[in-house]
Automatic annotation (TrEMBL):
It comes from Sphingomonas jejuensis. The keyword Hydrolase applies. Pfam families: Abhydrolase_1 (PF00561). PANTHER family: EPOXIDE HYDROLASE. This is Pimeloyl-ACP methyl ester carboxylesterase.
C-alpha cells in the first residue's frame, strides 16, 4: 500500500480526518476552498478539495476528474458552484494525487480500479460526508463513465448527472433470446481489426488507449526526455482550445483511414512515446506567459504530484477498459439506461467527443431517457472546467434539477 508523505504535517479536525490549508505544496487556490483527507472510503483515504462547506444543509455537488487530472482541475469552477449554494466536493480519484490505499504497481489486481468499484468509492464518499444524495454529479474524461455508472447503479443517490468530454454509449448488453435460436446477432466492432489496420498505415499508428495500457507507459510519462514540466505543459496545451491544430469533427466510421485524421496525441505514431508525439507542439514562452487557465504555479501542482506518485495509478483505467472480465461485470446492468436528468458538455476544440464513433448519437438515442441537452462550449478544448469555468458554471446551474437556494 502507498504511504506517501504530504511534505508537511497534517492536523486532524477531531473526527479523524486529516486537514490542510494547502493541499499540494503551495498550490494557488481561491479563498473558500479547503483540503482534507477523509478516511475509510471503500478502503481508501480520500484526499479532496471542498467549497461551500459551512452550511450542513447545502446540497452536494460531486465533481469527478479524469486523466491526467486531479481534484485540483476543478479549482476554477468550485467557487462558482459554492456561491450558488452548493457544498462542492472534488476528490482525487483512486490512483491519483493524494488519495492513498491503492497499490502502485502495474501488476496489481485490476478489480479495485474497475468502474463499479469506483462507483462504490463515490457512494461511500457521499455517505461519509453526511449526504443522502447528490444534487449534481459531474464527471469529466474518465470521470464521465464513472458518473454514468453511478447514475445507473444508484439513481436514488445520484439524482442527476453531467457527462463531460466522453459521451456514454450505453451499457454492454447480454445476448437476447439465444436459447430459442431466434436472436438477431448485433455486430460488434473488432478492436483487433482496427489495431491491425492502423499498424498498416504509413507511418504505422496506434491508438493512445492501447499505448497507455502498456507496461512501458508509466516510465515513458514519468521520465520524458524533455522533462516532466515541459511534457505536461505541452500535453495540456495540445489538448486545449489554444492549440490551432484541434479541429474536431465526427468520424464517419471506425476505419483506420478515419482515425488517421486525428492528432497524434490520440492516434500515435507506433513505436514512439506520448511525450515524443506531443513534443513538436510545445508552446512558446509568450504563450505560456499569457495562459490564464493554467499558470506556471498551477502547472507546478501537476508536475510535483506526478513526480511524486508516477502515473501508474492513473494509467490503470486504461487497463480496466481493455480487461474482458471487468467489461463483462458491467453486464450486470444490461438493459438499464441513465434514467435521471442528464446533460452532455463538450468543447468545440475537443476531439474527445468524437473519438468513439457514434457514442454521442447512442447517448442521445438509447443510453439516456432524460437527456436535457448536448452543449458544446465555443473555444473550449479538453480541459473545459479549467479553460471555460464561467460558461460551464452557467450550464450546470441552469441544468441543476432543483435550485439549492
Amino acid at each position: 500500500m502507498l504511504a506517501f508523505s504530504f511534505g508537511r504535517a497534517l492536523a486532524t479536525n477531531g473526527e479523524g480526518h486529516a486537514m490542510s490549508g494547502s493541499p499540494y505544496g503551495d498550490a494557488p487556490l481561491a479563498p473558500g476552498i479547503r483540503s482534507r483527507v477523509v478516511t475509510g472510503i471503500n478502503g481508501l483515504d480520500v484526499h479532496l478539495l471542498e467549497a461551500g462547506f459551512g452550511d450542513p444543509v447545502r446540497p452536494l455537488a460531486l465533481l469527478l476528474h479524469g486523466f491526467p487530472d486531479l481534484a485540483y482541475g476543478w479549482r476554477h469552477l468550485m467557487p462558482l458552484l459554492a456561491e450558488a449554494g452548493y457544498h462542492v466536493v472534488a476528490p482525487d480519484q483512486r490512483g491519483f494525487g493524494r488519495t492513498t490505499g491503492w497499490v502502485n504497481d502495474y501488476d496489481a489486481p485490476l478489480a479495485p480500479f474497475g468502474l463499479l468499484n469506483l462507483v462504490r468509492d463515490a457512494l461511500a464518499l457521499v455517505s461519509a460526508l453526511g449526504h443522502r444524495q447528490t444534487a449534481l454529479l459531474v464527471g469529466h474524461d474518465f470521470g464521465s463513465p464513472v458518473a454514468a455508472y453511478c447514475a445507473i447503479a444508484r439513481p436514488d443517490v445520484f439524482r442527476s448527472v453531467v457527462l463531460m468530454s466522453a459521451p456514454f454509449p450505453g451499457v454492454p448488453t447480454l445476448p437476447f433470446d439465444t436459447a430459442n435460436g431466434s436472436a438477431i446477432a448485433t455486430p460488434v466492432a473488432d478492436p483487433h481489426k482496427l489495431t491491425k489496420a492502423l499498424a498498416a498505415l504509413d507511418p504505422p499508428r496506434v491508438l493512445y488507449q492501447q499505448y497507455l495500457a502498456t507496461r512501458e507507459a508509466n516510465e515513458d510519462l514519468s521520465h520524458p526526455a524533455q522533462g516532466l514540466h515541459r511534457f505536461l505543459r505541452t500535453f495540456f496545451h495540445v489538448k486545449s482550445g489554444d492549440w490551432p491544430g484541434n479541429m474536431p469533427h465526427p468520424l464517419t466510421d471506425p476505419s483506420a483511414g478515419a482515425f488517421a485524421a486525428l492528432p497524434t496525441y490520440y492516434v500515435m505514431e507506433r513505436g514512439t512515446t506520448m511525450a515524443q508525439n506531443v513534443a513538436p507542439f510545445e508552446p512558446n514562452a509568450a504563450h505560456v506567459a499569457t495562459c490564464r487557465w493554467l499558470t506556471e504555479p498551477e502547472l507546478a501542482v501537476y508536475v510535483s504530484e506526478y513526480a511524486r506518485t508516477g502515473f501508474q495509478g492513473a494509467l490503470m483505467m486504461y487497463r480496466v477498459l481493455a480487461d474482458p472480465l471487468l467489461n463483462r461485470e458491467l453486464r450486470l446492468f444490461s438493459g438499464r439506461t441513465i434514467d435521471v436528468p442528464s446533460l452532455f458538455v463538450g468543447g468545440t476544440k475537443d476531439w474527445a467527443t468524437y473519438v468513439a464513433p457514434g457514442a454521442l448519437d447512442l447517448m442521445r438515442s438509447g443510453a439516456t431517457t432524460q437527456l436535457q441537452g448536448i452543449e458544446i462550449i465555443d473555444g473550449a478544448g479538453h480541459w473545459i472546467q479549467q479553460e471555460k469555468p464561467a460558461q460551464l458554471g452557467r450550464l450546470l446551474l441552469d441544468f441543476a434539477p432543483k435550485s439549492p437556494a
